[in-house]
Amino acid sequence: MRHLMSPMDFSVEELDKLLSLAMDIEKNPKKYAHACDGKKLATCFYEPSTRTRLSFEAAMLNLGGSVLGFSSADSSSAAKGESVSDTIRVISCYADICAMRHPKEGAPLVASLKSTIPVINAGDGGHQHPTQTLTDLLTIRSLKGHLGDLTIGLCGDLKFGRTVHSLIHALIRYPNIRFLLISPEELRVPSYIREDVLDKNNIPYKEVERLEDAMADLDILYMTRVQKERFFNEEDYVRMKDFYILDKAKMALAKQDMLVLHPLPRVNEISVEVDDDPRAAYFKQAQYGVYVRMALILTLLEVEVC
Ligand code: CP
Fold this sequence. Notes:
The protein contains 11 helices and 9 strands.
């Protein structure tokens, strides 16, 4: 039995296979409509979510399965003090696979150690968000045609943004990847990622503060929101929240085939005037999240569709 805690849990070959499966699902949805008949997915979300929880649920329903779960800690027995370990032992009696989001780093990993069903990390604190990374990889591969030879700008809250941490881990395994890390000083990528991931693997990167200075070089611009829920005080959040706003004027500095991605939700960091730009791919990205989660459920449940 396999769990998914980090994008590194899959080899590059396994990721390629999973992304190819997701692309086939997009093209031939009917072929997969009964692949998970009789199977149940539990979504155990101790933190708010729109895309991740509902795309997981849509994915299982598209595969013919059923869903159950809770969408906040308050509506589960966590509110009475139940541990994640006890909860997953019980959920293992009710479902075939579980997607778990938790504000504490490592909570889904703790659950996986006691689980008798596959556990998927659907976001753990400021640590990792591997299924967002699968979504991002599928979006890039589908729209760009390849995952190597890219200059990628990661912009915004690079300190607390778990989608950024997971994406860096995943992309460094492809050839000729370069990063421009665009953030204010206080929200830089954590040093353990700079030193242990980027430096150690000789990945070219540059840290810059002004988005305007990076735009012309980018093949992908990955915008992120400032993670209000991870700040220790409101004052710091208010000071940082509108540091970057991508608008038409900044888009005019970019290549004609650059893609703008964002894991969403967006707050102010992308002006709505950018939504109609053909390079804005963030809503398409949310759609890819369903196909890739369908592929992941099939893979972890070891369901083959001929
Ligand atoms: N991208 C993402 O994780 O969105 P949600 O928080 O809405 O799930």
